[in-house]
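Field: sequence (string)
Field: structure_tokens (string)

Example rows 1 and 2, in order.
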Amino acid sequence: MSETIENGKLVELTYKVTDKKSGHVLTMVEFPLGYIHGHNEILAPYVHKELEGKSTGDIVEVPINGNQIYGPRDESLVFTDHIENVPEEYRQVGTSILMENDKGKTHSFFVTRVDDKTLTVDGNNPLCGREVVFSLEILTVREATDEEIKVGGAIGAEAEIDPSLTRPI
């Protein structure tokens, strides 16, 4: 009988986030992501709750409504400017730009469109207005050692994430 996810267990999993409407994969982690359940919650609390009681080999699908988490899209956070006003290092779709307003408050924007004359940035979270499915495949569930609990994951584990497939959620 395989162990089930509960507090104090080492869990390793992979995941992907898929747009429910289009079926496009928005982000994914193909190499094991490890954590100690109940000690270092690396995913949203409701995702951890869905993982409880699951075992190695299980695939858990958690629907996420971006509007409930991040609110509705705010079109006032979308700006287009002449390309010559934007430094060259920011002229690529997907680039994250941290901007500061006149009151000193910072906000992240993503470059969403570039052409010969203009560049568009969007300050909305990429999941605003989207319904997605968070699919997690559980690879390992076992008792964590005291040392693993102390460091928050498997000793010697190295997660590799393909940066071309990741975007903040």
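Row 2 begins here:
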Amino acid sequence: MPVEPLPLRDIHLPEPVSWWPPAAGWWLLLILSAVIITSIVLFKQVRKRRLLKRTALAELDMIRQQYHENHDRLELVKALSALMRRASISFYQRENSASLTGAKWLQHLDNTAQRKDFENGNGRILATAPYLPANSPIDIDFNDLLTLCEDWLSIQPAKGVSQ
């Protein structure tokens, strides 16, 4: 007796796996990567600003030491003026601090320190110091000026500022 073939159907393969939406593990990996990259960038920015602050304070100490050695008042105020200008440009956006002169420069220093000692105190000499002729009489408390500049540098934020 001949065997009759069975009525079998062909094998049906499942649909190919779609690439979208990704599995939960891929989403987790994407989020984790974004968090890690953001953390590294922020860490580097904070580290750079802290290094900037330490460098500026070290330069201030050198200026103080030079003043105690040679007692050149004009050189002191010129060096402090240049240091404060460079530090301000580094701590804040260049557009907001590099072009400031005179009273606006002193107001910027006061605003960023939340005090009024630059505009109304011994710090006002920083606006005119680079332009003083040699042997100009300068009648201010230099230790107070050095302390004022040191306080300003010390209170600058370690995180980025957008002013």
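free_text_note (row 2): The radius of gyration is 32 Å.
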